[in-house]
Amino acid sequence: MNRTVVITGATSGIGRAAAREFAGRGDRLVLAARSPATLAEVRDECRAAGADVLVVPVDVTAPGALAALADAAEAEFGAIDAWVHTAAVMTYGRFDETPAEVFDQVIRTDLLAAAEVARVALGRFRAASAGTLVLTGSVLGHITAPYMSGYVAAKWGLQGLTRTLQQEARETPGVRICLVNPGSVDTPVYRQAGNYLGRVGRPPPPITTPERVARAMADCVDRPRREVSVGRLNVVMRFGFTVLPGVYDALVGPLMRLAGLTDRPVAPHPGIVFAPNPAGEAVRGGWLPDVSRVVRSVGGVTAAAGSALLRRLR
Ligand SMILES: NC(=O)c1ccc[n+]([C@@H]2O[C@H](COP(=O)([O-])OP(=O)(O)OC[C@H]3O[C@@H](n4cnc5c(N)ncnc54)[C@H](OP(=O)(O)O)[C@@H]3O)[C@@H](O)[C@H]2O)c1
After folding, report:
1. Mean pLDDT for all residues in the chain
2. Is the model more confident about 205 or about 298?
3. First to last CA, the chain
4. Which CATH superfamily is domain 4-283 in?
């Protein structure tokens, strides 16, 4: 396609899958996140796929950082055609047991930084009368679950912000804003999360892949849409939350403890809320079997068995 695409949150999970997806579609990439070492790895992956890549280490919550990122992108490649914002952090814990500074930093990262991305990107898109902003919401921007108050509050805020921006964008031809709302996705976010609950989190089933969400994001840049939901049960959960609030509230706590938490104990810690953990960064979180690896190992075992059989027959 040969567009210039900025991806914030490109070192892990959905953002890293998006970097690979856009690289495969022939776009130029500007990749940002906090960890310089992992950014260099993702740059190499995308260059191997044939993409021109600029990496810029950025903390999206740092004042002025996102404007500087846009300046760097324009200096390297000219106008920005699309900005895909996936950076976010998560914490588990009852609201009254989560340190206030951790809650505040989740809101700063997941909501206020997304607003700053919109401010910077839309300013440049408006001047050029062209550009697509893709923001990453969540099914948790339409429903709620216990022990994730900061994340849920930020995603509800992002939902409202995005809809407002979309209404305002009707006055700025050529400027498009899309919100992609995943359900459960197999990424490292659950282990990278801060935790004040005592049990490690996990994605409740059904779990989809970050590659599928990345394809939805790239499709949004090709053909912008207001909102895209990626997750088989998203609609069902929204229906139960809206139409049967009493039943929903009675069931969501037990279901969260059953399907959204492991039995693995964990001491209180802030996860990656304040600083990155490069060792935990990858595209997949390891909650789903990696089909290509299974195929490779089945293929390897079959080939080994075949050659052993041939040796015996000779
Ligand atoms: N996984 C799911 O089940 C799921 C479901 C619904 C919605 N989502 C949404 O999808 C998006 C991506 O999530 P994910 O699961 O892919 O998470 P992930 O694997 O933990 O990746 C998060 C990315 O955000 C970056 N990031 C975090 N804080 C940052 C900061 N202050 N400045 C710059 N970059 C920062 C991380 O890099 P550094 O740490 O190196 O900075 C990393 O690249 C998020 O918006 C999340 O809310 C995920």
Report:
1. 94
2. 205
3. 54
4. NAD(P)-binding Rossmann-like Domain (3.40.50.720)
What's the residue count for the chain?
A: 314
Pocket test for ligand 1, best of 148, 187, 191, 192 (most atoms within 8 A of CB): 187
Nearest atom (ligand 1) to Cα of 59: 32
Locate the domains of the chain by residue range.
4-283
Q: Which of 6, 14, 56 gets mutated to test ligand 1 (max ligand atoms within 8 A of its CB)?
A: 14
CA of 41 to the centre of ligand 1 (A): 17
User: Is the pLDDT score of 299 beyond 60?
Assistant: no
For residue 123, give every residue at least 6 positions away whose Cβ sits within 8 Å of its Cβ, in sequence order, or none.
none
pLDDT reading at 304 higher than 70: no
pLDDT value at position 313?
Answer: 45
- Nearest in space to 182 (alpha carbons), one of 285, 289, 57, 293: 285
Q: Tell me the C-alpha distance between 282 and 187, whole Å.
A: 8
